[in-house]
Amino acid sequence: MARREQQIEHLLRRAGFGGSPDEVDLYAELGLGGATDVLLNYQQVPDDVDGWIGQAGYVGVTTRGEFAPSANITDARQRWLFRMIHTRRPLQEKMALFWHNHFATAYSKINDTYGSTIATNMMAGKPAETIGNTKGQLELFRENALGNFRDLLIAVARDPAMLVWLDGRLNIRTRPQENFAREIMELFTFGVAHVQEADVYAAARVFTGWNLRAVGADASRHYVYNFNAAQHDTTEKVFTFPIYPGGAATIPARAATEEDGVDFITAICAHPETGPRLARKLYAFFVSDLQPAPAAFVARIAGVYYSSGYDMRTIVRAILLSPEFHDEGAHFARYSWPAEFVVRAIKETGWVGFSVDSALTPMVNMGQQLFEPPDVNGWELGQGWFSTSGMLSRMNFGATLTTNQRVNLRNAARPFAKTPQSVLSFVLDRLSPMAFETAPYDELLGYLRAGTNWTGADNELQTKVAGLTHLVLGSAYYQLV
Amino acid sequence: MEFTRRQFVKGGVAAFTWGFAAPAVFSDIALAQGSRNLVVLYLSGGNDSLNTVIPYTDSFYYSRRPTIAVPAANVLQIGSDSSGKPLGLHPRMTGLRQIFGQGRAAIFLRTGYPNLSRSHFLGLDIWASATPGAPQGTGWLGRYLDTLPSPVDPLVAWSATRELPRTMLARTVGVPAIPNAQQYAFSSPNQGAEAVNARTAASRIASHVPVDRPHLAFVNGTVQRAMATLDRVATVVTYTPTVTYPNTGLGQAMRTVAGAMVRGIGTKVFFVQTGGFDTHASQGAGGEGAYGTLMQTVDAAVWAFYQDVSNQGLLASTTILQFSEFARRVGENGSQGTDHGEGGVMLALGGGVRGGFYGTAPSLNPASNPTLSNSGNDVRWDIDFRRVYAKVLDRWLGADSAAILGGDFRQPGLDFL
User: Fold this and answer.
1) Do the Cβ atoms of A391 and B218 come within 8 Å?
2) Interface of A with B in 130-169 (CB under 8 A)
3) Lower CB density within 10 Å: C or N end of chain B?
4) What does pTM read for this prediction?
């Protein structure tokens, strides 16, 4: 079972959350090109993962009363982790996570505004499970995971969670407010260096009247997007950059219409800095965050962004097929996000008898609580994950997981029990970290030998394989993906 | 190595920490570096400073903030600026009023810097780096830490946040981020001697710094710093304060800071943070509601801390410095909130602080008024925040502010330390 499929494993770590040994075999059979195709064209693969929740053979969830992942945020977090671990569409979940960081929206503010049920509906609800059959933001990200960026941006501008998070629900004609208008340019598209104050003020007026409307009463009450024509500022809006293909920078005065917003979003998608900025973020997400994206890569991927009409599937395909992605120097050249670390650790260590609920508090301490990014700029990525407490939390999650999996690990290790070397090979094979150098490799062997004359007996094996797996999960070598 | 082991068992996972034995060398360094403490308090989101320090006799304050203005009768009146303009504190700032009354609170009016950014993220980077031209680099306190003689104690600074703030980002010194001292421990799947073996092995694995792979070296360095700080941090967990701290994130962080100071673990510089200040909407009428809660959160935590360190005899060696990335517009918007604006307010509190108002408050009359900018919509900044930093660096930390700030910000007029 020695891991030999380095390209496939690299692909699965980036376009997914890593592969269990069985998954690696499965994708390897398709070859690199076939595997890339299957990951990209996930719509051809059944989306049946939710049906496995609670079934034997999969990671567990912890229920407190009824499992309600569209109404209870803890359950929503559990379901998302379950999907990351077991989905047959890993790139779709990976892109959903990318968009969650890009359009970073936090549950807590919505909870403060409308309470926990509505807030969970808005963040994570599946239409069949919500009040009024509304669709949560995460479902929007899944649906548009590799869709058209402009379509996604328009949908986000009308997304109830976003309308609460950046106060669009309260944006009215007489005195517009600027929260969403600023961030849609600074963070969602072309970046702070190109934002002028005048554009913020004009964009705030563009989105006046893009509000929410309450539907139903009492227990059936919920909120939907509503274009409130009476609250839309109909006067002209002048920008410092072109809004229309001919170069006109003014949205004309006209009867109240959402076309003001659609024209503006179309313009910021076409802005010459939006493609490069997205290319840089995607480079850091898929290729490497050890150095800035090379100029040639940015130019090429930005070119694909514009020429494809903002089609994310075409863009991500170009990245996954790029020489930069396949360069061996890109292997293990990304700092894993806590969600990636946790999911990969579970997939590679084992999950039978483990509940994803046990990962939720550790993820808070690692600095990534799902549905609760620190601010609209998303998480502090790369080295930002690795504060001392963040790293300790990763090490300690490794302890929690290996404590839980000690018997499973021992059973799996039995055929390799003969010598410390064979046990170490087994564990490194199973976890597939980047290659240990000689000195730390010898420390791992030293740990196996410490305090024992190796016999390979069951009790020794159970102690040492759990301890060794913990050490590998908590080492620097496992934090890079 | 010698150690005493204390076992905690949480959810079946054995956690242990080394008994407290601060390496002698670090204690000596701590003494040599003096016992002064600096606590930097960041109000995240852009504090609406006109509702913190209120020009309650300015009729334009009321006409331009018809819902969110604090009624004059509720304002805590504390005095006037040098131009004679009466100013008062938000009604929830009862603790700050007492500190101001004791002459231990400096209030800096109309703080800012040239070409002030209204982006949260660029703005914070600028306040943190104190270099508006290169805001992606090290932090101003990080550069201070870089000037300390080696070996620098890994606990010389402590950020009570999950992520290390840029303010404390240094070139040569790694600062631990410890939001919760209780959880700052090393766990193992095994117990007894095996857990000790695991801890030893984890430290040793991290001690092998791979050449030419700085990303691995970086993570290894983090592991080493974590392992080197666990035991002293554990002593803070058992600290019993002399007052009751509010049960808020900020309250508990301030309690932990006081514990670290009282236990004398060697930390000189702390960073604490509290959020929610991006009040575009629903700020609350008349100073109540969401903004009132924000003021309450800050005041209750700071006041508890102030009393606690006073009781512990540490007030004279403690300074708190408060900032936010920008302030907010003069007029309220249609959502009972305020959008991003310019000139704000900084505070310095502590036993060594000469209290009072520094600088002058704005007049809020929008017509041709030199204290406003942006067509009368914003407070025009007057005191460059780096002047405040310079005084803290020079007078409190005994450093060279010109070297650290990359320029001379020692203009007279801010003799608060």
Assistant:
1) no
2) 166-167
3) N
4) 0.91
